[in-house]
Amino acid sequence: MDVLRPTLININGRIYRRNIVKEEHYEEEEDFSYMGPSESEALEEDETCDSHFIEQTDKGYRCAIDVPSVLYKYIIGKKGETRRRLEFDTKASISIPKQGIEGQIVITAAQKAAVSSAVTRVEVLVESFRKKQPFTHFLSLPLNDSKVQEGFQTFKDEVLRQCSQDHGVDESIFQNPAKLHLTIGTLALLNDTEVRKACAHLQECQSFIRDITEGKALPLEVTGIEYMNDDPAMVDVLYAKVSVKDGSDRLQMIADRLVEHFVSVGLMVREWDRVKLHGTVMNTLFRKDTTVENRGGAGKPATSEREAFDARSILKKFGNYGFGEFELNTVQLSQRYSTDCTGYYSSAGSISFS
User: Fold this and answer.
1) 25 φ, ψ (degrees, to nearest 5)
2) In 3-state terms, what secondary structure has residue 101?
């Protein structure tokens, strides 16, 4: 890291500098220093903690904050070093539930400013390590209509019949037809409370979605294929293009508004200015190693690196392929690595267009 140009992060309107401290237990442990007012101004500002309620007790001051149990270890640190450092620096006591038990981290001190300072430091740590957690859920628009599934199966059969000799093309890299979908955005929901919060926010989106769709299902057509990479001879993802039959941008509007809402409430990180609408039909992440499969480990990656495939013939022969038409009527909060009774991803929550 360039010490003259440290990484800055924004939490609740305040700017913090991130310092990297190497430790054995984690790849890296991060410490943060507040970059803002002078020390006297900061002390005065810390008297009021905007994000959490600090209550006065007969022994001083107390604040309880909700933190998913999976993040406790980052506040504790190796052999408790991080917590001890936080307590020493802020002159506050930090009580953390046992690992795996969902609860609240309780911060107490004789001075209100000490509690406020400790709360801020804990928030910074939580925010930093939360970003490193793999996503657990995603907002999806299901494409697994029976007509589209039939079209996809025909596409798969014809590609394997006509293009199976092309480099990297095999059956294992095709999408499961029951899980055809558009991904709107991903979320890392680390406990049941956060899942419920995401479901509640999804419900809040129903009104603007129905305004866009006029309270009706959205007629879509799935036609044409495109690739993600720059070189059609070295492709990792091939996807079907999805559009509204009347040529409007209503589907794009719905996707962008959903992302805008979930970013605004802190449940999603914006990656692009606009959502790229794509229904994956082939992905090298799906590739299986037949030698592993024969040993009973089907589905595990053959190597740490993805093996791209040559999509030039597929694009030439199936560039305008029609997978089918259907009416989209739902947005789902889908759980990663899951399957429901229909073969689609398990849903934590959903809203309808009509």
Assistant:
1) -70, -35
2) coil
Closest CA to 315 of 197, 202, 235: 235
- Rounded CA separation 149/34 (Å): 53
**How far apart, in whole angstroms, are the C-alpha atoms of residue 100 and residue 307?**
38
Q: Which pLDDT does position 269 carry in this prediction?
A: 87
The tokens for 317 are 């022969």
**Cβ of 204: how many Cβ atoms within 10 Å?**
11
Quick check: 236 pLDDT over 60?
yes
Q: Which residues contact 254 (CB under 8 A, 6 or more apart)?
A: 209, 212, 213, 218, 331
Tell me: the pLDDT tens digits for 278-320?
Answer: 999 999 999 975 443 332 333 344 445 789 999 999 999 999 9
Residue 241, SS3 per DSSP: strand
- The model carries a pTM of 0.77
Category of 66 on φ-ψ map: left (φ > 0), alpha (ψ -120 to 50) or beta: beta
Q: Which distant-in-sequence residues (6+ apart) come within 8 Å of 21 by Cβ?
A: 28, 29, 30, 31
- From residue 71, give the alpha-carbon distance in Å to each of 76, 104, 149, 290: 9, 12, 40, 37
Q: Can you tell me whether residue 218 is helix, strand or coil?
A: strand
The DSSP secondary structure of 137-149, one letter per residue, reads EEEEEE---HHHH
Q: What is the C-alpha to C-alpha distance for residues 248 and 29, in angstroms, rounded to an integer?
A: 48
DSSP result, 114-135: HHHHHHHHHHHHHHHHHTTSPP
Taking each helix axis as running N to C, give the angle between helix 192-204 and helix 206-213, from 0 to 180 degrees, rounded to the nearest 10: 40
Residue given tokens 């209509």 in the structure block: 145
